[in-house]
Write a structure and sequence with these properties.
398 residues; 15 strands; 22% helix; 31% strand
Amino acid sequence: MKLGENIIATSDIALFFNIQNAAAVGIDAPTLRRADAIRTRVRTLSGFQKEAVVTSARSGQAWRLVSDEGAYLNGHDAAPCPLAFLSVGMIASYLNEIQALAKMRNIDIRKLRLVQDNYYSMQGSMLKRTMVGGALPVELQVSIDCDLDDAALNQFLMDAVHASPLNGLMRGHLTSLFTLARNGVELSPDKAAPLGGAMLPDPAGLFGDLAPAAGDLTLVKPLGKTAKKAVQGGTQAAASSLADQQDRRLNVGAVATLRDDGLTEIVQLLYSPHGTSFRFLSEEAPESGAAARAPDAVSYISAGIGFCFMTQFGRFASMLDLDLPEYRIVQDTHFSRGGASGGTGKAGAADAVETHVFLDTGESDEVAREMLDISEKTCFLHAFCRTDLKVKLKVVRP
């Protein structure tokens, strides 16, 4: 049985759009700490459907994005799943850095296509509170036509991968930081690491009057069910992600190419749990200060982390039949510029993810704290941040 109403499908506005009136409705970005800072506000709509407003301090642009889950979580499959967003942002960032580094080093790339596979794990029992989400090494295949010999090409591509701002979340062990409020009253977290400092305002009132900017681009669209492939430990059954005892492996794929109009096109593939593929568009904000036509890589990455974390609250509440009708987050992420695209010549860097959690619930303070603890522990993308991950690179010459 589907969980909740299909609000996304019945809405008369685009799934993704550039917000024209962000400042007027009080949407802001964090103060710059590195070269870019992203504020991601997310609210639940119905079931596992969620809406996000993502704002970049560097570009000044704000985007409205939505996410849903498929049959594996009794979702409506009306929008991309949370893990799709990180895969899309990651592969877009790698494409950006490869192109920028080639320009810096006067390397002529005649053809370029990236194929990426992200893997995650979920193990343990929710009822016994032993369930833990994990992140596994990333596989990246680069199909490229250029004049570098094999050794030089491999080094060039690894330099570009390390230049991605996402490198700062992948390498090392970043412990995510949190604040928590239950029914408007701030609580100290229990096991989740406290952020400290003032809690940001509840974003509940910021979503109602979002106005799309003019434009005729379709930033995301469904492409139908992903072609099936065998994934060791993978799942395809309906409601499989709601099973109490789990030992499964998730696999989200992405394919990125550069279009003739300069936009990056990414096809997201959901192999395990099996689901729908979506086509995304991405573009970095021009250095001229002009507006980008589509969300940039770190905006997609930040949205993915927020969406995935929100899913875990809904999953925990639904599996244990807890009262949690509404919940929201405000999440700040801080990134360096890309080592090539930003001209720093350094590996990409990032700070720990900072998240403010707002729960509307009839459950006790203790249960609210447990909701935060379990959601952090089972979130694949907070696991991604606290795990030292490497990219397994494969080079293909067409």
